[in-house]
Amino acid sequence: MLTIERSASAPIHRQLYDSLRAKILSGDIKPNTRVPATRALAQNLGISRNTVLATYDALLAEGYLESRLGSGTWVATLPSDAVRSRNAVVRAKTPSLSRRGEVMVSQPRDRTIPNRIAFHPGYPEIKSFPFATWARLLKRHARYAHEDLYGYHWVAGHPRLRAAIAEYLRVSRSVECEPDHVVVVNGTQAALDILARLLIDDGDVCWIEEPGYLGAHSAIRSAGGRPVPLPVLPGGWSLEDDNRAAPRLIFVTPSCQWPLGYVMRMEERLRLLQIAERHDAWVVEDDYDSEYRFRGRPIPAMQGLDKSGRVIYMGTFAKTLFPSLRIGFIVVPPQLTQGLKRVVSNTAHYPPLLLQVALADFMDEGFFASHLKRMRKLYAGRQKFFIEQSRAHLAEWLTIAESDAGMQLVGHLKKPLDDLELLSAAQHQGVDFSPLSRQYSHLPRQHGAIFGYAGIDEKATRIGIAALKAAFIEISR
């Protein structure tokens, strides 16, 4: 009854283990059945006896088999509800999710598809990252048993990385902070999850930009908050609205608004801080890719204007280095520091310390600044080329404007087309992007496409633009 598929991706020992275990649980091999001797089974299947021995040992350790002195190895007698006939129809009733769990699993997800990331926003240039340098820095610390790197220390972040982040933010983003105010976490979504649960009670009103970041909206909903749209229009942020409920929290991306790329004017920033003070609200400033500004100096963070200790600043290395690094950070007012450390400890939202010290070296030794400088120049050229190609081949369907900052551009549809239908046609052509309509939760949806251009070279851009043209022609028929 046992077969081994030598061309399968699973190793032989795993195939044998899975097959024996499944037949025991299904009842195909009955309890108190003697299994073949290891030598006989190995010969029958044409495999090593050591493979059979290892499989039997694993099943003996887990209680599926039992050894009887002088009598060989037998199938153990398992509880009756654990062994089911393979012909039985099992309709197991599982416990229901909590109300909050139902909300969490219902949230939308802007997923990517492998090998189709051509124009999906948020992807940096990967091939140009100095991986040889990164590997050397990792090896520097991995080869020695540093007690402070392999224990339960520094749940708020390794002191060296927190100091490096604080120094970088003070110089480049005008953020007012000390190393102790920096908490290192597993990326942007982890930061949003922590802050939402820490700051929001059930039913609390949270102003969130619209169109705006899906991940922030999902984190607020999942924590029990009530998102209320803060409209972002070509003329700016709609801060004045007497009919809008008073906020407990305000989420904004002022230096490069997601997804439209607008920059919040100084008078709007000061007005927003006044509103937050009047309502005793927290402000969460997501500064996700403001390092990439192609004309003029980067816009200083709003956190540096805050005099009342209510702006919480967050950022990520996913856009500046590479997404799978999964390292982000939160800069909190002094009164929140100790509480946030406990929350991070209890939720385990902290990345490995080995990666943190390698990143600290990467920053301290100047590699981070050099990489950013190269990427700014590269992305400026890629944005220009993407716009030229779009205007040359997609002008019939799409209006696209250059941006002073960021890693993505928004294309507005000239014709009444559905951007989800366009996405389906584009994916059929092997191209991916993010539909603009998904970024709306309350206001009338605008249709368009958010294109990431930073992670693809000119050859791939040409191929992608041609595929997009084919998708437009397909849905326009």
Explain this structure.
This protein folds into three domains: 12-82, Winged helix-like DNA-binding domain superfamily/Winged helix DNA-binding domain (Arc Repressor Mutant, subunit A), CATH 1.10.10; 131-366, Type I PLP-dependent aspartate aminotransferase-like (Major domain) (Aspartate Aminotransferase, domain 2); 370-476, Aspartate Aminotransferase, domain 1 (Alpha-Beta Complex). The protein is built from 14 helices and 14 strands. The protein has helices at residues 12-26, 38-45, 49-61, 99-105, 131-142, 159-173, 187-199, 214-222, 266-279, 337-347, 353-364, 367-393, 419-428, 458-476, and strands at residues 65-68, 72-75, 182-185, 205-210, 226-233, 236-237, 249-252, 282-286, 311-316, 328-331, 398-400, 408-413, 434-435, 448-452. The strands form three sheets. An eight-stranded mixed sheet has the order 3-10-9-8-7-4-5-6, sandwiched between helices. The chain has a four-stranded antiparallel sheet with strand order 11-12-14-13. Strands 1-2 form a two-stranded antiparallel ribbon. Strand 11 (398-400) and strand 12 form a beta hairpin. Helix 5 crosses helix 11 (353-364), helix 7 (187-199) packs parallel to helix 8 (214-222) and helix 13 (419-428) packs across helix 14 (458-476).
* N to C succession of SSEs: HHHEEHHHEHEHEEEHEEEHHHEEHEEH
The domain count comes to 3
CATH fold label of the largest domain: Aspartate Aminotransferase, domain 2
**Multimeric status of the protein:** single chain
Biggest pleated-sheet summary: 8 strands, mixed
Give the number of helices: 14
> Level of helix content?
25-40%
- Give me the count of strands: 14
* Low-confidence runs of at least 5 consecutive residues: 85-90
Q: Roughly how many Å is the radius of gyration?
A: 28 Å
Secondary structural class: alpha/beta
